[in-house]
Amino acid sequence: RPLDINIELPDEQSAQKLKIGIYFATWWALNVVFNIYNKKVLNAFPYPWLTSTLSLACGSLMMLVSWATRIADAPKTDLEFWKTLFPVAVAHTIGHVAATVSMSKVAVSFTHIIKSGEPAFSVLVSRFFMGETFPLPVYLSLLPIIGGCALAAITELNFNITGFMGAMISNLAFVFRNIFSKKGMKGKSVSGMNYYACLSMMSLVILTPFSIAVEGPQMWAAGWQNAVSQVGPNFVWWVVAQSVFYHLYNQVSYMSLDQISPLTFSIGNTMKRISVIVASIIIFHTPIQPVNALGAAIAIFGTFLYSQVNKQTYSCLPTSSTWFFSEQ
Ligand code: 3PG
Predict the structure, then answer these.
(1) Can you tell me the distance from the alpha carbon of 264 to that of 253, in angstroms, rounded to the nearest whole number?
(2) What is the 8-class DSSP label of residue 316?
(3) DSSP state of 132
(4) Which of 111, 115, 271, 275 to mutate to test the pocket of ligand 1 (most atoms within 8 A of CB)?
(5) Ligand 1 probe mutation, 41, 50, 96, most atoms within 8 A of CB
(6) What is the tens place of the pLDDT at every residue in 25-41?
(7) Which sequence spans correspond to the domains of the chain?
(8) Is the Cα torsion angle 79, 84, 85, 86 positive or negative in sign?
(9) What CA–CA distance (Å, rounded) separates 142 from 57?
């Protein structure tokens, strides 16, 4: 008689949950590391246009090498693909540089509190630019998001208008990026990872001339010398770290997106912001007042409410992640 060994193998569902858990943990960890190094670099070298450009350049280079060495298969693209990618890349570029400018002016935690208001932008843009209407609970869920962000902003000890506007512009740009991407990716066979690689490359081409015009090599050279004299030769590794981690966290988020629904992704993205806010407050000793933390908590709670009320209507709402899923 065969031995009756009672080993409980995880069923498919638990294996899938474990896989998603690993993706999420990796994504958040990479994002926290990116945010820490990004802020360390910006503190010593306040040139966000260049650091944004370097993040895109590093990601583009990593993907070109991966394609050339066949670590990853290069996508088959045509002119039409690049044409439809263009508006996405413009919005991605604006959203990326605006977030980086914001983080160069205010605490990382403050930028991410304002960025947790992105769902409110999604609904308002869809309502006023696209003429879409939503059920009342969706609008009501925006109240804590907007109210919480407003409370966090007015009680922020290191409030700076450029920092605030940068995060707001980033929210708006990323909502348009989502909408354009939904159209652009429909029916295309390019994987999420390669779509993001192409997006990085096109954004790099768009951003480079603007970075040169806004900041330029003279400022960069002087700033770099100053940063190296303050930080030491390790400064270059900080720049490498922020660039590499920027690409890696985005890439892992795209890999997780193949596995999960937009709703799960949206909740994951909010949880990511909580990790970044908490980690950056601890690492940078960011001063916060109880009322300021309350505003952040209300805004984040509002994002969860928004996710919940969208369970029924999610498919019609562009969120920070919907565009990744438009292939599905
Ligand atoms: C950027 O630099 O693009 C922002 O830090 C992006 O932020 P997010 O991926 O958390 O929206």
Answers:
(1) 12
(2) G
(3) -
(4) 115
(5) 96
(6) 999 999 999 999 999 99
(7) 45-318
(8) positive
(9) 36
The backbone region for 167, taken as left when phi is positive above 0, alpha when psi lies in -120 to 50, beta otherwise, is alpha
Q: How high is the ipTM of this complex?
A: 0.95
pLDDT digits (tens, 9 = 90+) for 281-303: 999 999 989 999 999 999 988 88
Distance from residue 3's CA to the centre of ligand 1 (Å) = 55
CB of 260 within 8 A of CB of 38? no
Q: Classify residue 9 by burial, with Cβ atoms within 10 Å: 0-12, 13-18, 19+.
A: exposed
Ligand 1 pocket, residues with Cβ under 6 angstroms = 96, 99-100, 115
Q: How far is the CA of 96 from the centre of ligand 1 (A)?
A: 6
Specify the DSSP class assigned to residue 322: G
Taking CA atoms, 222 is separated from 39, 53, 225, 226, in Å, by: 19, 18, 5, 6
Dist CA 275 CA 188 (whole Å)? 34
For tokens 């031995």, the residue is: 3
Torsions phi, psi for 287 (to 5 deg):
-75, 130
